[in-house]
Write a structure and sequence with these properties.
single chain, 193 residues, mainly beta, 7-stranded antiparallel β-sheet, 2 helices, 41% strand, globular, disordered N terminus
């Protein structure tokens, strides 16, 4: 019954589309194995905003899920893992560590922060110092493009890398609405921030 309901709820003409999260790039917000509803038509009637968790198609037509950090005209620079948005550091406060369990049942502690982007708060991970994308040149987001990053900052292929780069507005399709299935049942029903 649940599968029939989900199939009808996410059919091609339905308002929502279902995605399974296959990678760790959005931890701790979205975990591998989470199933998330995305509003299919959200950006037909709404503007992309700071902090939105979006689905977009890469240059290679692969669906990616990331968080919007920069809007058209913004200047972004990353210095020692700190994000400067229009020359102002995006504040973050360290919280309890994130515990990651591997396939063998081994646990690993990862630094977790609450990042504060204007009036939006969400959690991000910082696995290591001096990561490959912890320092960038200053870049300006072009008109009708966006800059997005994964919440797992040291384990995300995102706008910091040329293979993804800036995201054209017409390649953004959905906004995250609801986690409807998760291995950790306490996360079901959460609206990804």
């Amino acid at each position: 019954i649940i599968l029939l309901f989900l199939n009808s709820f996410t059919s091609s003409n339905a308002k929502f589309k279902s995605y399974n999260i296959p990678a760790k790039s959005m931890q701790p917000t979205l975990l591998v194995g989470d199933y998330v509803f995305f509003d299919k038509n959200y950006y037909l009637n709404n503007e992309v905003k700071y902090g939105d968790v979006i689905v977009f198609k890469t240059k290679d037509d692969v669906d990616f899920v990331k968080r919007v950090i920069g809007l058209p005209g913004d200047t972004i620079r990353i210095v020692n893992g700190e994000i400067l948005l229009n020359k102002t550091i995006i504040n973050k406060v360290q919280t309890d560590d994130f515990i990651e369990i591997d396939n063998l049942g081994n646990s690993k502690r990862i630094r977790k922060y609450k990042e504060i982007l204007f009036d939006i708060e969400y959690e991000v991970l910082d696995k290591m110092d001096d990561g490959v994308a912890d320092n960038t040149n200053s870049i300006r987001v072009p008109e009708d493009h966006y800059f997005a990053m994964g919440d797992n900052r040291d384990n995300s292929l995102d706008s910091r890398f040329l293979s993804v780069g800036f995201i054209p507005k017409d390649r953004i399709f959905h906004k995250a609405n609801l986690i409807y299935w998760a291995i950790d049942k306490s996360r079901i029903g959460i609206f990804p921030k």
